[in-house]
Write a structure and sequence with these properties.
Neuraminidase; Immunoglobulin-like; 537 residues; five-stranded mixed beta sheet; mainly beta
């Protein structure tokens, strides 16, 4: 037992005695040899170099590294030699070719080995800022080699964002997309050129989505204020009657009314409408539900909206209001949820616009027995016909201005007011004409509004404006937008329409404070459905 205790104590003393000693020799394994390695890969100046001692059976070392300096925890010193088994980090500040020499000893034996290391000049590297966007400051920088005592000159070329001779310039790009940034660095010895391609994001803005009956496609148009915008096809094809469009969250919803837009027979009288959803970029097409041909054209989806609970509600020509969850896929076409109410309501009433207002469902009517706007609970219980003056007019589409407390609506049925765009207060009273130019919004000339659904003097079925939305900020400023199809670009009582070039049609806008006349946001398209993505992207 005493013998074992002595052995353990001896081992402990050996470890304690060596714990603070520096390793100064290579263990006795094989033949005596002096050797070392540099780091792998290409090195650029300034460079910090750590050597690896590959010597064998040596007990003394001397390193020489002319042109280098010693770097350790005490800082940088002008020492270019070392007696350590592995020298401290060597700092080379300038590009060039350097020699490192190792001399080692094993007793009286001595060996020397020298190796060269080539340090290239660092190629300038452009430091690109994150999230570059049009008309926003973007600060660039560069990492480049600098010779001591020499001035460095910089020549930047940012394309449409201009030029600069600063090391860290701040610029603004005027267009989105890919931009090539070029830089020439003159370091007093060489001229070095470098370039990089950067992606510039577009201006954050709301976006209008709209259908075009000429091309049978859906487009989007950013409502930018600082940079120009152009319509972009989002990859969604439509049918012949793309009456309804809405944007909620990250989805675009589209309702197609098919061939039967007015009193129809034959193939046009068969049910062929449907509801679809897409991602904002046009991907992820989903058929929510499709009308059965046996249901008839009166049940096809016309206008629609998606409520805050994620349900999609839609109107039909004269068969009632429907609802289904907007996330469903290829669901069986449902029965109607409710039909209109109030005095004088009948089967000849034409359902049209539909909105969620204060947790209620508001539906506009434009038929021989149904006019104005009716209010319903989400359970389908009739509340009332809005009692104001608005009750006397056939309303194809409407939209609510929640800030200024107005209802904007499109009258397609000539009565005491001509077809056009009007505004009332939230009670339906104090109606004001916004745009009812007969040469544009009427039906009597070949240059006026499309005659879709129009048959002589019977205007109950005239399709008129189906796309209408509002962009209003918290101060009440903004625009009302609505689709306009001139008869030259979309004509014929039923679908499919005869279409033109779109040169006389497009999206009209009205500035909410009335300080500007109604004008075209864009032309060249004949829109039915229209909706604004209210999120700036």
């Amino acid at each position: 037992m005493k013998k074992l205790t002595f052995i353990f104590a001896l081992i402990g003393l050996m470890f304690l005695g060596c714990s603070k000693d520096e390793i100064t020799s290579i263990g006795q394994q094989g033949n005596y040899l002096a050797n070392f390695d540099f780091p792998n890969g290409e090195l650029t100046a300034p460079a910090k170099v750590i050597l690896t001692n590959r010597s064998k059976n040596a007990d003394k070392f001397h390193w020489e590294f002319a042109g280098g300096k010693t770097l350790n925890k005490s800082g940088i010193s002008d020492v270019a030699e070392s007696e350590k088994m592995v020298p401290d980090t060597i700092l080379y500040e300038l590009p060039g070719t350097y020699t490192v020499k190792l001399t080692s000893w094993q007793g009286d034996k001595k060996e020397e080995v020298s190796k060269t290391i080539v340090l290239k000049k660092m190629t300038p590297k452009i430091v690109v800022p994150e999230n570059i966007a049009v008309f926003q400051d973007a600060k660039f920088d560069v990492k480049a080699f600098v010779y001591p005592g020499k001035d460095v000159k910089y020549a930047w070329d940012f394309g449409d964002a201009g030029t600069s001779t600063l090391k860290s310039p701040t610029v603004q790009f005027k267009t989105e997309g890919a931009h090539v940034v070029k830089l020439k660095v003159s370091d007093g010895v060489d001229d070095l050129a470098v370039e990089v391609t950067v992606q510039v994001k577009g201006e954050l803005a709301k976006t209008i989505y709209f259908t075009d009956v000429i091309t049978k496609k859906i487009y989007k148009y950013k409502l930018t204020t600082l940079s120009p915008s152009v319509p972009v096809y989002v990859g969604i094809a439509t049918g012949v009657s793309p009456l309804g469009l809405s944007v909620v969250g990250s989805k675009v919803y589209y309702s197609e009314a098919g061939l039967g837009l007015r009193f129809s027979s034959g193939d046009a009288a068969l049910g062929d409408g449907y509801l679809k959803s897409f991602n904002l970029d046009g991907s992820g097409e989903n058929l929510i539900t499709k009308n059965l041909s046996g249901n008839g054209y009166n049940s096809d989806p016309w206008m629609h909206m998606v409520d805050k609970d994620g349900n999609i509600w839609w109107t039909s020509r004269n068969n009632g209001v429907y609802v289904i969850n907007s996330t469903t896929s290829e669901a069986t076409y449902p029965a109607f949820k409710f039909r209109g109410g109030g005095t004088g309501f009948g089967t000849t009433s034409f359902y049209s616009g539909i909105k969620e207002v204060n947790d209620e469902i508001w539906v506009s009517f434009t038929g021989t027995a149904g006019l104005g706007i009716q209010r319903f609970t989400k359970a389908g219980v009739f509340i009332e016909v809005m009692p104001g003056a608005i009750k006397n007019h056939g309303i194809r589409q409407f939209v609510i201005d929640p800030v200024n407390k107005y209802i904007y609506f499109a009258i397609n049925k000539s009565a005491t007011l001509a077809p056009g765009i009007y505004r009332s207060d939230m009670s339906g009273n104090n109606i004001v004409a916004i745009y009812n130019d007969a040469a544009v919004m009427g039906f009597t000339t070949t240059t006026a509004f499309s005659d879709q659904g129009y048959t002589g003097g019977l205007t109950d079925e005239t399709i008129f404006v189906t796309g209408m939305d509002i962009d209003v900020d918290e101060t009440g400023k903004g625009y009302l937008y609505f689709g306009y199809r001139n008869r030259a670009d979309s004509n014929g009582a039923n679908a499919p329409q005869t279409v033109g070039s779109g040169s006389k049609s497009g999206i009209l806008r009205y500035k909410l404070d009335g300080t500007q006349p109604v004008d075209f946001l864009l032309k060249g398209y004949a829109p039915y459905g229209l909706a604004i993505d209210q999120v700036k992207r």
